[in-house]
Design a protein that fits this description.
By secondary structure, this protein is mainly β. About 0% of the residues lie in helices and about 45% in strands. It has no helices and eleven strands. The strands form two sheets. Strands 2, 4, 5, 6, 9, 10 and 11 form a seven-stranded mixed sheet that branches. Strands 1-3-8-7 form a four-stranded antiparallel sheet, with no helix packed on it. A hairpin with a 5-residue loop joins β5 and β6. It is globular. The model has no long low-confidence stretch (mean pLDDT about 95).
């Protein structure tokens, strides 16, 4: 059951920017104060990896080392939206990007702790 929807993926050139947006797929889906909302990505032949996350209660943000200084995660609590602003894109950023929800704010990096996911949006960065 897909509970989140991602949008904004595209094919771009090195150095370009993209904005990814994640929203609930149904009105009954609720993001709670204790949740972490996060973006993961998975490139062909590689494991899914954490990219960025934000705590819903305090808006505390976490980033993978590979994207620090280039990506910014933000939240819009009014519409339960999670936004990933991606700047200075590199070919190694090419992947399917997934939005996910973790009900445990203390298990932020482990994909297995997340209990709701979107179908993903493709980001392709060419040199």
């Amino acid at each position: 059951q897909v509970q989140l929807v991602e949008s904004g993926g595209d094919s771009v050139q090195t150095g370009d920017s993209l904005t990814l947006v994640c929203t609930p797929s149904e009105r009954t889906f609720v993001i709670y104060a204790n949740d972490i909302m996060a973006w993961f990505r998975q490139a062909p032949g590689k494991e899914r990896e954490f990219v960025a996350g934000v705590t819903w209660r305090n808006n505390k943000k976490y980033y993978a080392d590979s994207v620090k200084g280039r990506f910014t995660i933000s939240r819009d609590a009014a519409r339960d939206a999670v936004i990933l602003q991606m700047n200075s894109l590199k070919p190694e950023d090419t992947a399917v990007y997934y939005c996910a929800r973790n009900p445990d704010s203390y298990s932020r990096y482990d994909a297995s702790k997340y209990n709701a996911w979107g179908q993903g949006t493709q980001v392709t960065v060419s040199s």
